[in-house]
Description:
The protein is an alpha+beta fold. It has helices at residues 2-23, 128-170, and strands at residues 27-36, 48-55, 58-66, 72-79, 84-92, 95-98, 110-117.
Amino acid sequence: MKRSIVVFVVILILCIPSAVAAQGSPEGQIEGQVKIEPNGEGDVSDLEATITWFIGAKIETSYGTRTNDDGTFSFSNLPTDPDYTYFVSVHYGDSEFHSSPITFESGENIKSVEITVFPFDSGEDDNLEYLFAAFAIVWVVIFGYVLFLQQRQKRLRHDIETLKTLIKEND
C-alpha cells in the first residue's frame, strides 16, 4: 500500500511540470494601424508589416503580414512573458518605419500600436536643377572671393615695397 502511494506521488510530481509547460504563457496579440503624415493622404493597404521579438539582446524570431485596406494589421499567438520585447516595422516605399518597443505587462494580452509613415515623393519634380544652381552659385562666390583676396594681397605687397623704398630714401 505504501509502495503504491509513493509510486502515485512520484507519477503526480512528474506530470505536474508537463501540465504547466503545456499551458505556457498566455497568448497575446499586437494590433496596429499605419498612418500617413503630414496630410493623411496615400495608400496604406497591402504594406508589409513585420514583427520581431527579443529576449534580452537575442533575436528570438520574426515574421510578417500585410496591412488591410485601412492600414490595420494584427499579430496573434504571441508569448506575453514580460521578458519578451517586440518591435513592429512597416515597409512604405523605399523606407522602413519602426514602432517603439512593445512589452506585455502582467495580465495583458492585447497591445495596440500606431506606426506613422512619411511619404517621399520621388517623382519627376524633385528640384535637382535648383540644387545644382545653388551649388554653382556658392562656388562662383567662393572663387570670386579668392580672386578678391589675391588682388588685395598684391596691392598690400606693392604698398609694403613702396614704404620700404620711402624709408630707405629718408635714411
